[in-house]
Specification:
Helices cover about 30% and strands about 20% of the residues. By secondary structure, it is α+β, with helices and mostly antiparallel strands. The strands form three sheets. A six-stranded mixed sheet has the order 9-8-3-5-4-10. Strands 1-2 form a two-stranded antiparallel sheet.
């Protein structure tokens, strides 16, 4: 039995039913309809990379892989050092790493501001401190690892915009930190949602996020994910 089956066990859960403009939203957590970023980056390059942390990287990766304009979404670790960037070590919660996803995207098709909107709306709950759903520990914290001053400005501006709008009942706890390094996770973590759609953890916690992406961001949703592993499923 591989390591991930020991930790990502199926937790008993009741899916909360939310509604968007009269339409049911079925999810472990409700999607939150958010305004677009008032401050965004100008398009300067053909390709850009951003790193997001919002709980277990299986679901974070899975959502971003279904966003139009995303060329790659890789599960991995950020916030710690290279010598502790392994699944078993990060799972102790003592390394400074967060389970993260490195998103490579075409900013002319989807902006960093739009990715932030999806991140805060669909990917995770930014008001949960050092946890996300059934997973608890600093490795599951909400964080944005910014690769440039422009990304930091857009990220901090959007968080402040959401705080002023009062869209969340509880305070946003998302950290904005400099990206010092990103370390890809082990191969068995890549494309996990696509490869294991019937795995109980995925069914309860992550597949509803894909449905919410399709519902809340229909113009940004694509049915075929941008997979890391070049295999046929």
């Amino acid at each position: 039995m591989t390591a991930f089956f020991l930790r990502k066990s199926c937790f008993p859960a009741i899916l909360a039913a939310g509604f968007l403009f009269g339409q049911p939203v079925s999810a472990a957590e409700r999607a939150v309809v958010l305004p677009p970023a008032a401050v965004d980056e100008p398009v300067k390059a053909l390709v850009e990379t951003a790193v997001f942390a919002g709980g277990c990287f299986w679901g974070v990766q899975g959502v971003f892989q279904h966003v139009k304009g995303v060329e790659s979404a890789v599960s991995g670790y950020a916030g710690g050092t290279s010598n502790t960037a392994s699944y078993e070590t990060v799972s102790t919660g003592t390394t400074g790493h967060a389970e993260s996803v490195e998103v490579t995207f075409d900013p002319s098709e989807v902006s960093y501001g739009t990715l932030l909107q999806i991140f805060f709306s669909v990917v995770h709950n930014p008001t949960e401190l050092n946890s996300q759903g059934p997973d608890v520990g600093t490795q599951y914290r909400s964080a944005l690892f910014v690769a440039s001053p422009e990304q930091r400005h857009v990220a901090e501006s959007y968080i402040e915009q959401l705080r002023k709008a009062g869209v969340f009942a509880d305070p946003i706890v998302t950290q904005v930190a400099p990206l010092k390094g990103f370390y890809p996770a082990e191969p068995y973590h890549q494309d996990f949602l696509t490869l294991h759609p019937t795995y109980p953890y995925i069914v309860v916690n992550d597949l509803p996020k894909i449905e919410n992406l399709k519902l809340v961001f229909p113009q940004k949703f694509r049915s075929e994910p941008a997979l890391v592993l070049k295999t046929k499923h």
